[in-house]
Amino acid sequence: MNTLQTRNELAANSNSALLGIENANEGDQHLSFVLGNEHYAVDILSVSEIRGWEKPTIVPNTPAFMKGVINLRGIIVPVFDLRIRFDVGVAEYSATTVVIVLKLMDGNQRKIIGFTVDAVSDVLNIQEKDLGKAPTFAGNLPAHYIKGLLNIGDDVVTVLNLDALLNIEDA
Questions:
Q1: What does the DSSP 8-state code read for residue 58?
Q2: What domains does the chain contain, in order, with CATH numbers?
Q3: Whole-angstrom distance, CA of residue 79 vs CA of residue 69
């Protein structure tokens, strides 16, 4: 399936797929994005910004999924490639590749991290009751990274657990 076609279908089906939601403004908003042929989403309130791809500064002796660091207005931000970490698709950098910069709280400390993704898709309104449980079986993506699964048309969107992603560099 063509990634562009999949993103367009996701966008076209997003409101109609959230069956059981009378008002599309109900629920929490999540930013959806594409990794390979898979769709994922994160809580939009944690998204600080979306940046075009720029090659980060490499940090020696780091895992392959850590692409390096970028300077974000004087703040050094580690950038992780989720395609490599989750083993979904080949890490190729194109015109649609972006870095999603997240601001997360780790206890009383704010942590800023960036994730390289193939493309941003849509903003989804998701109610907790619409999320399916995370699978307990082992796969490419460890279960603790998954908050839940959401059916949208013929696609499944994996909603990521940001608390687990906060410690991705410890993996």
A1: P
A2: 3-170 (2.40.50.180)
A3: 5
**14 within 8 A of 6, measured Cβ to Cβ:** no
- Report which residue type is found at 116: T
Smallest Cα–Cα separation from 110: which of 77, 85, 82? Answer: 77
pLDDT of 22 strictly over 60: no
E strands of the chain, at which residues? Answer: 28-35, 38-43, 47-52, 66-72, 75-81, 98-106, 109-117, 119-126, 146-152, 155-160
C-alpha gyration radius of the chain: 16
pLDDT tens profile 5-15? 344 444 344 33
Handedness of CA 123, 127, 131, 134 (dihedral sign): positive
Q: What is the pLDDT of residues 39-51, one digit of tens each?
A: 999 999 999 999 9
pLDDT, position 97: 92
Q: How would DSSP label each residue in 100-143?
A: EEEEEEETTEEEEEEEEESEEEEEEEE-GGGPBPPP-S--SS-G
pLDDT computed for residue 1 by the predictor: 37
